[in-house]
Design goal:
The structure holds two protein chains of two kinds. By secondary structure, chain A is an alpha+beta fold. Helices cover 61% and strands 14% of the residues of chain A. Chain A has three domains: 14-108, Serine Threonine Protein Phosphatase 5, Tetratricopeptide repeat, CATH 1.25.40.10; 135-193; 196-255, SH3 Domains (SH3 type barrels). Chain A has eight helices and seven strands. In chain A, β2 and β3 form a beta hairpin. In chain A, α3 runs antiparallel to α4 (79-92) and α4 runs antiparallel to α5 (97-108). The N and C termini of chain A lie far apart (53 Å). The mean pLDDT of chain A is 84. Chain B is α+β, with helices and mostly antiparallel strands. The longest helix of chain B is centred in the first third of the chain and has 29 residues, at 2-30. In chain B, 26% of the residues are buried. Residues 1-8, 26-30 and 426-442 of chain B have low confidence and may be disordered. The chains are: A alpha+beta, B alpha+beta.
Chain lengths: 256, 614
């Protein structure tokens, strides 16, 4: 009994220290973030950016942080990195209107406006809808339907008299949970195999084959978004939303 | 005899051939490689300035497989007009020794440059570490013509060769349209080979040099063509060798170096037996071209360096677009002058917007014996304000060679209609205005109490899996529990057996409350009902089935089961409780002793617990 009591005390102390450290670190992050915002407000974009990047290096995945970082990059004229961080912010919060507005503004200011291959009517609507479908959103929906399924199952088991009424809800919530679970894993697998990247250099040349001597098909400019299609040695085959495809060397684009 | 002679001849012929072959092989094995003779001759020791001198260098070798050509010494008083060579090889067998003699004869046709007596220095050949040299040759050059047959040269086999005729039979012609131009003005040179001879081989010896010019190569021949053309009333096969546009960089007189080809032609012989003709190698040179580049009149400040013709226009991809939408405008310069010198023109927008130079392309096109250089600038335009947008550029000043004056040229502005809502004056990235009134700081996300780190994908979070596992585990456990209970309920007898104690206890509790309220008769009833209900449920019967008559039989049945057989006293105690309850229930006087009833109640609890424990 005494031993159990001691173990309990130790666990409590460890948890207290860890929580306190977490709170302190959190306070430190907020302080740094506020400082970065002050620098931004004062027009010192380079300093602000440096502080935002320090926070990002601490593995803080926060869409507001990414948004501000992207703004700082934009102010410094680095369109490629600005887009990269807007896209990262959108992954965390696809419903953020500020990020979407700024991203649209940025795209309009890019050197080359890439018009998607299918940009009319239903395709446009689907494309717009798909931009909201991220792994995070699918994950949240999956958790919601999973929780709903658990609750409905509970009710079903506890109240035999309501079973007839609850049967539809059980099947419905189970089906939705399964659908979103499958979609989540499918999207995860697809994005792992075909990650999207952004051009951060001023211009890169896209070649017809994975050899340096091959023909230059076209050039893409800073801020262009592309999808990895295939990987071969030091080369990757990419495609752009307007349907163009080609080979570029690894490491010259930043993956979102 | 006849047969013998015939046989002898038959044997002798192969023996003879074999011996010849043997001696040839042995002779070849022991033959010596050497240069036998090296000499230089001129056809005339005295020539006129208008004559040509033929210098023949002859190298005789024995058993030498190959030897390099001798190099001419430096000739100050002569220039080499032509060079040709021929070889002759013979094999002789003398005293069984085979000698392979080879004669290399090189003919240089020299043009005297000045009068006087000149010595052509010895011509030297180095072979296997030994030096061979010719005797020096002295030539006197005087005015005019001296040799009456100076223009008649002899081929190696002694056939006369008419050099002048050769010059009209094959030549390279360059005829610039103008010999006097302005600095920076284009001059187009076309090198055409005219030939009436059977050309065996042809190779570029020397490309023309254009020092002092900016040049644009238009064409370089890679093979002979056979176009028919007439020149001076004679028909020729012609080949376009080279086409180039030149732009003199500075004023001055330019003597262009010629284009030289190494050529071998097959000369037809007058000899009726000379069926195949004789090859003759020599050099063909283009004619001299002298260009005078005059200075331009006093240059104006904005002069771009373009001389000639210049057209300048501005076009676009779209006539109407929305605010913020990108479009392209194209500035096209077309000129006979060197537009490479023109800097990228600035683009002006009549309304607010952005313009970037996104591409520059150059091209050339030939029209009416002039080369037009084309430069196309592509600009990306992003309008930020609605209304009519005019895209314009600055004027370009060039020198027009026709009117001989400086002219400003400017394109018509390109007009576009812009629709949509104008973008704010200050194109900062702005967050939508909120009612919080955070002023200028509102365009970034500032007010947060905690910088929460979020996961992009839950699939990497252990908590995600823990949540699913815990809930699924719980629901599984709950489901199993519930299933068991429901199965039990479905089997009512078994359920009652399990729940016998609970049911009995509920009834006994009621009995206890009746005791508390001094309702002893009711309490007795409840105790009786409780204990009989317990027994009935345990043996799968109803409480009504339990009577004073069958209680012992029933109890015997219950206690015959293995789990109740441990203690017989419980059976007796139950039977006793039931008998006493019936006795008190049907007693005419009733019972009012609380102590007895409470004892009965406690006995009931005790016996049920005792049986449950077993």
């Amino acid at each position: 009994m005494r031993r159990l009591f001691l173990i309990g005390i130790i666990i409590f102390l460890v948890l207290t220290v860890v929580t306190a450290a977490g709170i302190c670190a959190g306070t430190d992050h907020v302080k740094l973030y506020s400082e970065a915002n002050s620098q931004y407000a004062a027009g010192e974009y380079a300093q602000a950016l440096s502080l935002y990047l320090q926070l990002i290096e601490r593995d803080i995945n926060n869409h507001s942080l990414y948004y501000n970082t992207a703004n700082a990059y934009f102010k410094l004229g680095e369109t490629g990195y600005a887009r990269l961080y807007y896209e990262r912010a959108l992954l965390l919060n696809p419903f953020d209107r500020d990020v979407r507005n700024n991203l649209r503004f940025l795209q309009n200011n890019m050197k080359e406006k890439i018009v998607p291959l299918y940009n009319e009517g239903l395709f446009k609507a689907l494309s717009s809808l798909s931009s909201f479908i991220t792994q995070r959103i699918l994950g949240i929906l999956e958790i919601i339907f999973f929780t709903a399924f658990i609750i409905v199952i509970h009710l079903y088991l506890i109240f035999p008299s309501l079973r007839e009424n609850l049967r539809g809800s059980v099947y419905g919530s189970l089906a939705l949970f399964m659908i979103f679970l499958v979609l989540l894993f499918a999207l995860n697998s697809y994005e792992k195999n075909h990650p999207k990247g952004v051009v951060v250099d001023e211009t890169i040349e896209v070649l017809s084959a994975p050899v340096i001597e091959s023909e230059v098909l076209f050039s893409v400019y800073e801020g262009a978004k592309m999808k990895l299609k295939e990987e071969r040695g030091d080369w990757i085959r990419i495609s752009i939303s307007d349907g163009r495809e080609g080979w570029i060397q690894k490491g010259i684009i930043e993956f979102i | 005899m006849f047969r013998l002679i015939k046989t002898g001849r038959t044997i002798l012929i192969p023996i003879f051939i074999g011996m010849v072959f043997y001696f040839m092989c042995v002779g070849a094995l022991y033959s010596e490689e050497r240069i036998v003779n090296l000499e230089a001759n001129v056809d005339h020791s005295e020539i006129g300035l208008l004559d040509m001198l033929t210098l023949t260098v002859t190298v005789n070798t024995e058993n030498v497989k190959s030897i390099s050509k001798p190099t001419l010494p430096k000739l100050d008083a002569f220039s080499v007009v032509n060079e040709s060579s021929s070889t002759r090889t013979s094999v002789s067998i003398l005293n069984g020794k085979t000698t392979r003699s080879r004669e290399l004869r090189i003919k240089y046709i020299l043009k005297p440059l000045k009068k006087g007596t000149f010595v052509i220095d010895p011509i030297i050949i180095q072979y296997k570490g030994e030096t061979y040299s010719t005797e020096p040759v002295t030539v006197k050059v005087v005015d005019g013509h001296v040799a009456d047959e100076a223009d008649v040269y002899m081929l190696d086999d002694g056939t006369p060769l008419d050099i002048e005729q050769l010059k009209t039979d094959i030549f390279i012609l360059v005829e610039p349209a103008e010999s006097e131009i302005y600095e920076g003005q284009q001059i187009l040179l076309t090198y055409i080979l005219y030939s009436r001879l059977d050309i065996d081989t042809i190779a570029l010896k020397q490309a023309p040099e254009f020092s002092g010019f900016y040049k644009e190569d238009i064409y370089n021949a890679t093979k002979l063509e056979n176009r028919r053309d007439t020149y001076n009333g004679q028909e020729y096969n012609t080949t376009l060798l080279k086409k180039v546009a030149l732009f003199p960089l500075r004023p001055g007189i330019y003597d262009l170096k010629p284009l030289v080809l190494d050529t071998t032609v097959i000369l037809k012989s007058d000899d009726p037996y000379g069926f195949f003709g004789r090859p003759y190698s020599f050099q063909v040179r283009s004619n001299d071209v002298i260009i005078k580049a005059n200075p331009l009149p006093e240059k104006e400040k904005d002069f771009t360096g373009v001389v000639g013709e210049l057209s300048f226009n501005l076009t676009g991809r779209d006539r109407s677009l929305e605010v913020g939408e990108a479009t392209a405008c194209y500035l096209v310069l077309k000129s006979t002058g060197n537009i490479g010198a023109i800097r990228t023109p600035e683009i002006y927008l009549s309304k607010r917007g952005r313009a970037y130079l996104s591409d520059t392309k150059t091209d050339m096109v030939e029209e009416e014996d002039k080369l037009y250089l084309i430069k196309k600038f592509e600009y990306t335009i992003i309008p930020e304000e609605n209304g009519t947008l005019f895209v314009d550029t600055n004027d370009i000043l060039y020198f027009d060679t026709v009117s001989k004056r400086y002219i400003y040229v400017s394109p018509d502005p390109y007009r576009m209609s812009i629709t949509g809502k104008s973008i704010a004056e200050e194109p900062i990235i702005k967050k939508q205005q909120r009612s919080t009134g955070r002023g200028s700081f509102s365009f970034i996300k500032g007010d947060i109490k905690r910088l929460m780190s979020r996961s992009q994908s839950f699939l990497k979070e252990p908590l995600y899996y823990l949540y699913h596992v815990l809930l699924l585990g719980w629901i599984g456990f709950f489901f199993i529990l519930k299933s068991k209970r429901e199965n039990l309920k479905r089997d009512a007898v078994a359920y009652k057996k399990v729940k016998a104690r609970n049911t009995a206890m509920q009834i006994l509790n009621e009995a206890k409350s009746r005791i508390e309220e001094n309702e002893f008769s009711n309490a007795i009833d409840h105790i009786y009902t409780g204990i009989t209900t317990y027994i009935a449920h345990k043996c799968g019967k109803t409480p009504q089935d339990i009577t004073i008559k069958n209680i012992r039989t029933i109890l015997a049945e219950i206690f015959s089961e293995e789990k109740f057989s441990a203690k017989g006293s419980d059976k007796e105690q139950i039977a006793s409780i039931i008998e006493r309850c019936i006795q008190y229930k049907f007693s005419s006087t009733g019972i009012d002793d609380e102590h007895i009833i409470r004892e009965l109640y406690e006995q009931s609890i005790s016996v049920i617990d005792s049986m449950e424990r077993k």
